[in-house]
Structure formats: C-alpha cells, structure tokens
Amino acid sequence: MTAQIHFGTDGWRGEIARDYTFETVQRAAQGFATYIKDQKRGEAGIVVGYDKRFHSENFAAAVVEVLAANGIPAYLTQDATPTPVIAYAVLTQKAAGAVNITASHNPPTDNGFKVRDHNGGAVDPEGLKQIEAAIPDSFDKVMRLPLKDAKAKGLVEVFDASPKYIEHLKDLIDLQPLKDAGLTVMVDAMWGNGAGWFPKLLAGGKTRVLEIHNYRNPIFPEMQRPEPIRPNVDAGLRATVGNHADVLLITDGDADRMGLGDEKGEFIDQLRAYGLLAYYLLEIRGQRGPIVKTLSTTTMLNKLGKLYDVPVYETGVGFKYVAPKMLETDAIIGGEESGGYAFRGNVPERDGILAGLYILDLMVKTGKKPTELIEWLFAKVGAHYYDRIDSLFSGDREAREQKILDARPKTIGGLKVINLVTRDGFKFDLEDGGWLLIRFSGTEPKMRVYTETTHKDKVQAILQDGLRIAGLSNA
Prior knowledge:
36% of the residues lie in helices and 21% in strands. It is α/β, with parallel strands linked by helices. Strands 1-5-4-2-3-6 form a 6-stranded mixed β-sheet, sandwiched between helices. It has a 6-stranded antiparallel β-sheet with strand order 16-21-20-19-18-17. Helix 10 (270-284) runs parallel beside helix 11.
C-alpha cells in the first residue's frame, strides 16, 4: 500500500525508514514541483537546504533530482544551513520558493519536508492543500534525473547562503556594541544548525561566546528532542551557572526557534520571551506597527498593543497563518507559543539567530540582566504565568471534540470562563485575562493543554481542569 503524505502546519514529517523514505521524499518533491510549475514560477528555481539529522543531505539531493527532472533549477546549500538563512536565500536567489529537509525540533527518529514560498515565508493553507493534492500516489509517476546529470546540465548550483544573510543582519542590528559589551553568552545549539553562528557573529570584541551541543550528533544526547523547552534545555541551564554566563541563548535543531535562560540558570518561557521581544521593538527601537500572534501565545502582547496604540492580530497555530498575516499588515513582529519569532525587515519566517541578537541588544541597551528584564516587562503589563501538558490519546477525535464542546465549564481553576473560541482548538478565555487552550496535534495522536494566567498559584489547577474537560488524565 502506498504511504499517504499529509502536510501539517509547515509541511510533511515522518519517521525515517518507516514512512519517511527516499521514495516518499521524492513523491513529495514531485508534488511541490507540479505546484511550482502550475504557478508558472519554475524558471526561477528552488532553494534546497537541510539540517544535521540522519541522511538529511542525501534526502536533499533526492529532492534536487526531482526538481531537475521537472526542468526546475535548484540552488542547493553547500552544507547544513539554518532555516532562516535558507528562507532569506529565496530572496537573494530570486527563487520561487524553498524545500528544507528538516524535522526542526522533533525527535531524532523523524525527518521532514518543509516548503516555503517566493517571499521566503510559509506557504498558506490553500497552497499546502494544492501541493498535497499534486503528490503522485505512485513512485512510478515521479520524474527523476540523477544528480550528476542534473549538475552537468547546469540545473544545480551548490552555494553558500551564509554571506548574504550575514550582510543582511547588519542592516537590522548593529553588532559592534554587542561585541564590545563584555558579556559572557552561553549558547546551546542543540546539536543543530545554529552551531557556530553566535561565535562567528560576535567575534572580535570583549564579549565571550561559549557553546555546548555544537557539533553533529543525530541522536541528540542530553535531550529528548532539540526543542528549546524543559527538560531539553536543562544541560544548557546548568552550563550557564557553571560558566557564570549572563544569559543562555538556545536554538533548536534548524535554528528557527529561540529559547532563553537567565543568569541564574532559570528557564524563561517562550511567552515571556515573546513579550520581551515585542517590548524591545516598541520601547527601545521605537518601532510602530501591528503585532501578529497565534491564539496559543501570550496576552501580554494585547496589553502592549493597547499601551502603544498598535493593533494585535490573532491567528490559528502555525506560521502558515502568521506569515501571510505579517505580509498583509506589515507587522513589526509575528510569533507563536513554540518559540518562533519573525520580524519586519526580514523574511516572514521564524529566525532564532536574529531573535537571540535582539535579546542581547536589549540587554546592552538597558544594562539589565535577564531577571531584571522580566521584572521590567512585568512592571509594564503585570506578571503572567504559563505552562503546558502534552498527552497522547486514543479513540475517535471527533467524539473528544464533542466532549469538550459539551463540557461548558462555568469555571476553570477557580476562574470564571467568559468566552470560548473554537478557531483552532478550544480556547477558554478566563476572567483574569488568561486562558486555557485544548488543541489537537495535526501530525500525531497528541492533545496539548496550555494555559496562561496572572495567578501563579492557579496554573496547575487550570491545566488539571483542562485535562478533565478533554477526558484525559495526567498519567
């Protein structure tokens, strides 16, 4: 039976050797090639990049063979390259889009097939449907040209995407003050594509950059997966304390997401990180313009929007919603709960490298350490507390969704429920301005229960009520 390929929020992901094979990757590539040709963009070519997972460079070569057979030129990165650098290369190469072989923050058993449009951003939901529909149901229908023949025909250019991206960064941020600041910056590259980037960008001054997990190891030791949340970041937090560092910057497997740790070795959750980045752009940089957020991230952004008189747009979960809204509104920042943030002046793509540089600039400009930055943010919008539980489930999804709708709770965690939003999951707005979100994964039998509240002592009670509403237990 032919394996089915379904695109989620960013593209397609599967388990290596089970459903993610050279044949299925080339079928996905044929679908993308057909979509690009239908758009009459084939002559512009496609950027193809990859991460440091098992066989990623070879899966990328397999994609190039399909593009070439379809008459579409390929710009193939010369080595493992961060996702934001691949996205920016779409612009510098004037390409029609990109294919990125990466499973980003997911387990070592997986790999993925991310697609990007001619803006370097996520393909919108309608485009993803068209790509998926164009994937042939048989490998016999895939067009292929061996890589050596494709190169001989001039259909493949192997290139280094880094220099132009680095020059572009210099238009967005002055790196010299960061180099001269004398900070000690700990970086956890999570065995991924972010390795070496901060040492290279900040070299030549008083600032020291120390890295861990900065070489290729596809099994990702010391973490469950290269996702910048606890417990995966615990080794980095310990190293921060051990080296008396001023801050911990964490990039995930493909360096599109950023995590933070403070100078005391405590994790700064991704909602607080988003609040800091938005506050930095509004207060320190003096920028004005819309903010785009997914419904699963912080209401601190809504408060900042009111304080600075800028609109805040809320979307479904995933950059396939965030990127188009950023382009439509010329937003100064867009982001999501998972630690992905995009910025005006850059491509509409998550960029863990630029986000990390902006955090360092915030520290330098204010003279504050991370713990003091959180106090500074909370003084403006009030204290906010967040947590999430992921739980596997079995049985019929529709029945569970109906169970959640039928629950109609009047209170959650002792707080009055004032509204229910069902745009992407089930979001219960609470009387304190906080919320509970119950949402199904688009790629696996997993349900996520999230909350943000202004009451620190109610976080776990809200989550436990959420599990009960969903018919789950914390076991």
